[in-house]
Amino acid sequence: MRWIVGILSMEWFSGKNAKRNWSIALAVLLYSMFSIWLAHLGEQKARELARLKKENRRLKAEYVETKKLLMQDQLRSNIYEKLRDRQFVIPKRPPHMIEVKEK
Questions:
Q1: How many domains is the chain built from?
Q2: CB of 92 closer than 8 Å to CB of 80
Q3: What tens digit of pLDDT does each residue of 11-39 get?
Q4: What DSSP string describes the chain?
């Protein structure tokens, strides 16, 4: 019971072994500050990783879309080449759409 009273009254910082106790308290303080700093650093890395994953998904979707458009363009050019081989004339302008208005 006496040691609890000694801890609560902070006698261990002013007694005969105070120098050793201060060094231990300082070591515990530095260790706790280092642990907090490492936790903060880990959280920053996790947020950065989440941001990079989101950007990676966006870039993959953009890549797939571009690849799809490129494949469609290649398919169109293949069809045009086959038509040229058969002496078809490819128009310079796209076809004009005719709208039919219903009454």
A1: 1
A2: no
A3: 667 777 778 878 888 999 999 999 999 99
A4: -HHHHHHHTTGGGTSTTHHHHHHHHHHHHHHHHHHHHHHHHHHHHHHHHHHHHHHHHHHHHHHHHHHHHHHHHHHHHHHHHHHHHTTPPPPSSPPPPPP----
